[in-house]
Amino acid sequence: MSSPGNQESQLGQEPAGQSEESHRFTGKKPDTGVPRAPSMSDLSRATPPNMAEGERVQEIGCEPDTSGQDKQRDLHHIFEELEKKIMTFVNNELQRFKQILSPDYQENFEMKSEDESDAREGALKMALQFLCNMKYQDLADKLNENEMDVCCQNSLKRNLKNKYQVVFEGIAKQGSSVLLEEIYTDLYITEGGSGKVNEEHEVRQIEYRSKRPAGQDKPIKCADIFKPSPHPGKTIRRVLTKGVAGIGKTISVHKYILDWAEGKDNKDINFIFPLCFRELNLMRENECSLMDLLQHFFPDLKKLKSVSLDKHKVLFVFDGLDECRFHLNFQRNESLTDMAVMRPLDVILTNLLQGNLIPSALLWITTRPAAASKIPPGCVDLVTEVQGFNDSQKEEYFRKKINDDRLASDIISHIKSSRSLHIMCYIPVFSWIVATVLEMIYSSEHKQIPKTLTELYTYFLIFQSKQSNIKYGMHAPEAEWKKPIKPLGKLAYEQLEKGNLIFYEDDLRECGLDVKEAADCSGLCTQIFREESGIFLGTVFCFVHLSVQEYLAALYAVLSMAIEGTDIISLDSAPPMTESLINLHKSAVDKSLAYDDGRFDLFLRFLLGLSLETNQTLLHGLMSRGQRDIKVENQNQANDETIRYIKDKIKQASSPERMINLFHCLNELKDQSLLEGIQSFLRAGASSPGQWSALVFVLLTSDQNLDVFDLKKYIRSDEALLRLIQVVEESHTTLVDSCGLTEQSCAALASLLNQNMSKLRKLDLSDNCIGDVGLQQLCDGLKSPNCVLETLRVKSCGFTEQSCTEVASVLCKESSQLRELNLGGNPIGDEGVQRLTSGLKSPNCALETLGVI
Description:
It is a single chain. By secondary structure, this protein is of the alpha/beta class. It folds into four domains: 4-151, no CATH class; 186-388, Rossmann fold (3-Layer(aba) Sandwich), CATH 3.40.50; 450-704, no CATH class; 705-853, Leucine-rich repeat, LRR (right-handed beta-alpha superhelix). The longest helix has 34 residues, at 68-101.
């Protein structure tokens, strides 16, 4: 065996017969034909990972000693310590290299340090050189390749961590930057469903979802979407996550990636490559290979060989399929298996999804529901859906967003009092808008709280305009900050017709909009318009939320009519103004009804809401310039005609969705006859399932007090109660006396009393033929520990002494909160009263009033 000195003398010598192929692990060919061995000066410059720079300087850079003998002794001590540290470092690195070369090194992948000091690089070069000299070229190649994989992974993790640990709330770049960990609130995500297209408008989906009975969905944690399936033989490789705009799909992706980059979760994944379609769109005309694509977005992967991806667990994340502007032709695209072959982008993506390219790779695609059908069901193993905030998460968000606890409590109370706002706050971006507006209003002296959706968005536009003036130091007159509104509205309307949510510079120029000029003018664009620049790519734009785009599109329609007398929907321009305004409203109603996907539903609500004087006043005269001002009396006349037109359309509506949006429109116009009209409409015999659904929805989303629900206002029947049971859930007092009910209704009421968050305190069932069966079913609900009912009236309900035993058992329950019970008018006799006695004598009985006559 050679001595250490002989080994050192061999460094730099090339073994006989060594070919040029042996140098491929170095990345370049040195003049000597082998990797350059580190010199002592290299090692002296290197700082081992476990030694801080200050420590090295402290030990080596001591102040000179005037005594030569002391200096020599100190130098000897220094090099003894240096030898120990070098040997410890080298031994640690050799152990790491051994792990990298072990067959199960992928399991040890996460153990690699992120430190890439010169010393570590020098140790690798030494190991490679010695392996070459020992004629273990294959091990040298494998070590170098695996070490490059480790370096690429560590570099990727650091970059992804830096990118995703900070988020911008509301508006990218211009928004307030906060740490993701500080504001992130778990979202409710469910498993199941299909990848087929969903035709419902996004706001409509979230409104329905908020009222869907609990237990219908299977919740799943975002971090677990690729975990082993509970179904034997099924592998989860391709996941499609749906969710409406602004509901938290992208933030969920960022949290997943951040947790991986920080080593908190999914440690078995070696590489994650997040790509968003809004950036991929800008490469749609180019051909590239898969490796070219990855190295374009992740330059640190330049050292990673394409063959390396096959042996690692890799996750591709494609965010925003709904923003994809190129075809994904799964049927006609050629099959592709080589990662180095150049092809159009859609060919690469379809082959990834079909499993031709990197068959073992995981794929995660996020999309709005309407675009889900772009991916064939056969290319999806699991569908998940982001449902947004639940009630507790909404409250948690507002308390994080608003620093003043008292102010936060006031705002939360207001949101809870407005069912329409409360439901919409399931969407995180909408919660941000609501918090922004209400915090401004509650903090000012003028506390005119918005009651409708249009009022809320009008306040939002005003607030952002004023904030932009302050931010940019403009303090310009109102005419200045209003300049970009019309071209923004034109862009919003034209792109809404095309179904586009993201735009490019050409789209903006076509509408006469220069974002930089608008920003210089007022900054308004930077407050409601989002600008994002991709890596080495162009710039894409979008509004902060789809609803903002719909609001501005409606504002553009109203402005065009008010200033120019032009109906942009029907393209008519004819005086008098009142007639033109009515025509605009009718055109908008017809346009909304013509789109089955609900694309213009919210647009219509905003358009009608902006016709009210209150909203025009809020906009400080924006819609009253020029000679074509709309007079107040003309507005009222036009609105009255519009209300009649909408009510006629309600009678003709073929689906609950159509009716529901039209009901919303009446609410925006503040039509006070809304509920009365619905009630008379139903009493007249129009009682299809769709119409009942519409009634339930309007009752639940209206701001009218539902503390007392009286079925007699509608139709007196079991069917009516069962159709309106969701409304009963929201009431404290339910009056269903003399409604012709049977035991069929009692089962539903018992189920309601058994609910965890039951609100029902008073129930009057008198004068209904529920009989013994019905009362006994009701007692099942009364026995539930969740039941909070305090008053029960069942006079003249046709039950006998048989039911009194069940009633007595209810009174014996410790959880019973009954204070008033009226059983009068029923043939229970003395025996029935006797059976009640056991319950009345129970120490748990809380009854204060009992009626038996």
